[in-house]
Design brief:
Elements lengths: L4 E3 L3 H7 L12 E4 L4 E7 L5 E8 L17 E3 L10 H6 L1 E6 L1 E6 L6 E7 L5 E11 L5 E11 L10 E3 L1 E2 L1 H8 L17 E5 L39
Parallel strand pairs: 4-10, 5-10
Antiparallel strand pairs: 1-2, 1-7, 3-4, 6-9, 7-8, 8-13, 9-10, 9-12, 10-11
């Protein structure tokens, strides 16, 4: 499952890593990317160049008739995407990469859920497998949106949740983007990368919180209170 993620890497670094061309969209570091927000997505333009654009997280299929009632899924199950009416066309024609420096997950039950952050152990950005759609109403109002594909969690993350986002390796980006021939469906599998995982503060659950401290690890156990100093008795009055 992928419901929150982080992208704080500098724009120029992202451009170089993903070999993007053209103007980069104007976006600030986001330590708490949430559904319905705009986020950078890498697509292949008609010119065959890789380009970053800002799309809204939550897929609105092109055939949507009532935008207000649209489901806008933020995730798509990779096992059923090819047979789903919501995702089938986008999977065949509109695949994209969603860059992320880290993502958040919650483990536990009810109010006792603990928030965690996870990132690649090598420090490289994650390229999440995404699908995008373009929607336009009768008046010409347009919306571009995306969703993130999920798969079974890898061993390093299974203790947090049984699902995870599909993380693609650089060698597979060209196949996923349709730049070279290959089977994109074969890439929809649990990641074999090593991950670093740590506990973070509960404030990450509030989308209004958006700062670097959200990624700071929290202690496994709360610190013990400092002992109170012993009070010395004053000498008895004569």
């Amino acid at each position: 499952m992928c419901g929150r993620y982080v992208l704080h890497r500098p724009v120029d670094e992202l451009r170089a890593i993903f070999a993007a061309m053209g103007e980069m969209p104007n976006f600030a570091p986001n330590w708490n990317v949430a559904p319905s927000q705009q986020a950078p997505v890498l697509r292949v333009a008609p010119s065959r160049e890789r380009r970053f654009d800002l799309l809204q997280w939550g897929l609105v299929p092109h055939f949507t008739t009532d935008l207000a009632a649209a489901r806008r899924p933020i995730n798509a199950r990779s096992e059923t995407a090819a047979s789903s009416g919501l995702f089938r066309d986008a999977l065949a024609r509109r695949r994209c990469l969603v860059p992320a420096d880290a993502f958040y997950e919650w483990a536990g039950e009810g109010k006792s859920k603990q928030a965690y952050a996870a990132q690649r152990a090598d420090g490289a950005p994650m390229a999440l497998a995404g699908l995008w759609e373009g929607w336009r109403d009768a008046d010409g109002h347009a919306l571009s949106s995306f969703t993130i594909l999920t798969t079974q969690a890898c061993a390093a993350l299974a203790h947090l949740h049984h699902r995870m986002a599909v993380v693609l390796e650089p060698a597979d980006w060209s196949v996923w983007l349709g730049e070279v021939t290959g089977d994109p469906l074969a890439l929809l599998r649990p990641s074999e990368a090593a991950f670093s995982v740590w506990k973070v503060a509960a404030r990450v659950g509030n989308v209004r919180n958006n700062d670097a401290e959200l990624l700071m690890p929290v202690s496994e156990t709360p610190p013990s209170p400092e002992p109170l100093p012993l009070l010395r008795r004053s000498p008895a009055e004569p």
